[in-house]
Amino acid sequence: MKAYDSPFAAIGDTRDTREVEAQVGKIIHTFLPDHDLARVAAAFRLLDSALEGGLPGYQKLKTLYHNRNHINEVVLCAARMLHGLHLAGQRLDGDHIDAALIGALMHDIGYLMRDGEACGTGAQFTDTHVLRGVEFVRTHLADLPPRVMEATVKVILLTDHRKHPDSVKFDNAQQQRAAFATATADLTGQMANREYLERLLFLYFEFEEAQMGNFVDIHDLLERTTKFYAESKVRLDTDLGGLGTHLALHFKACQGAERNYYAEAIDRNIEYLARLVDIKPERRLEFLKRGGVVEKVLEMTGEG
Fold first, then answer.
1. Does 4 fall in a domain?
2. Quick one: which H or E segment has residue 79?
3. DSSP 184-223
4. Does the residue 201 lie in any domain?
5. Structural domain contains residue 117
6. Which of 292, 153, 291, 129 is CA-nearest to residue 207?
7. Domain count along the chain
8. Nearest by Cα to 232 from 188, 275, 274
9. Which ranges of the chain have pLDDT less than 50?
10. Axis-axis angle for helices 173-191, 218-234 (nearest 10)
C-alpha cells in the first residue's frame, strides 16, 4: 500500500485509457472477484472505435472538454465509488455494477456527431446530449440484458445535472444506487482533475457553441465557477445522498489512508480559483500552466 501526500497523485493520471480500464477491473475484482467484466470491456472497445471515428455513421469526437480523458476520470471514480459503497454495506450485484460502469463510459457519448450532421464540434448538442447518449446505447449495446439496459439508461439520465434526481423513476434500490454513484463520479471526477481550472477554458468554448450559459467571456466563466461548485456541492451532498464520502473507504483499503482524495483535490482547485479570480483578467492565464491548455486556447483564438 502507498499513501500519498498529494491528492492529485493519489487519484492518478487518467489519460491512459488502457491503464484506467485495468484499474477499473482490479478495483471491481477486489470486492467481487468472480465477476465477469466482459460487458464493460465491450463498452470500452465500442467507445474506442466511436471516439476515434471508426464507428460507421459517426464522426470522430471533437469536443475538447467532454473528451476521452473526462470519460476515463468518471469511470475510474465510479469504480472507486462502488468499492467504497460495498465497504459501507451498500452493495450492488454484478448487473448493477455493469450498469454503473457502462453508464459512466457512455454518459457523454451524445456529443458524438453522426455523419451528415451540421458542422461543429458536437457541443451544439449540449442540451440534448444525454438523450442522444441513451439512444446510442439502445442502438449499439442492444445485446445487453433488459435488466442491465434499463439500469444503464437510468444511470445516463441521472448525469443530466440540470434535473433533480426525482425526475428519474427507479425500479429498485440498486438501480438508484448505481445511478447515484455514477452521477456523483461525473461531478467529482471532473472537479478533482489536476487540470480542471485549465480545462474550464475548453468548456467555455463548448458553452459558446451551444449558446448556453450567457458567459461574457472566459473570465466570466471562471468567476462564476465558484457558484457552480457551491451548487454542485448541494447536489452531491443532498440530492445524491453524499455517496462521495465513501471514497475514503476505498482509499483506506487500497492505499492505506482513510482520506477522500477527491474532496481534497476539489478543495485545492477551488482555493486556487479563489486566488486566481483576484488577479486582473489580463494576467490570469499566466497562472493556468497545466496541460498546455492555455497555449491551445490562444492558438484557437489567434492570439498564440
1. no
2. helix 68-87
3. HHHHHHHHTSTTHHHHHHHHHHHHHHHT-S--SSHHHHHH
4. yes
5. yes
6. 129
7. 1
8. 188
9. none
10. 150
How far is it, in rounded angstroms, from Cα 270 to Cα 196? 10
| Cα–Cα nearest to 242, from 303, 181, 158, 155 | 181
How far apart are the C-alpha atoms of 227 and 207, rounded to whole Å? 17
pLDDT, residue 116, reads 92
**How many residues are recorded in the chain?**
304
What's 5's DSSP letter?
Answer: S
Q: How far apart are CA 239 and CA 245, in angstroms?
A: 14
3-state secondary structure 268-296: HHHHHHHHHCCCCHHHHHHHCCHHHHHHH
pLDDT for residue 301: 79
Q: CATH number, domain at 40?
A: 1.10.1300
pLDDT value at position 4? Answer: 74
pLDDT at position 122: 97
Q: Establish if 3 belongs to a structural domain.
A: no
**Spatial separation of the C-alpha atoms in residues 132 and 121, rounded to whole Å:** 15
Give the span between the Cα atoms of 233 and 239, in whole angstroms: 9
User: Which residue segment(s) compose the domain that 248 sits in?
Assistant: 11-300
The 3-class SS string of 110-155 reads HHCCECCCCCCCCHHHCCCHHHHHHHHHHHHCCCCCHHHHHHHHHH
- Determine the Cα–Cα distance for residues 152 and 99; give it in Å rounded to an integer: 4
Quickly tell me which residue has 468518471 as its cell.
Answer: 74
Three-class SS of residue 58? Answer: strand
| pLDDT tens string 78-118 | 999 999 999 999 999 999 999 999 999 999 999 999 999 97
Tracing cell 473570465 back to the chain, one arrives at 219
User: Distance of CA 32 to CAs 5, 102, 135, 245, 253, Å?
Assistant: 29, 17, 30, 21, 14
At 299 the pLDDT is 87
Q: Cα torsion at 148, 149, 151, 154 (round to 10°)?
A: 170
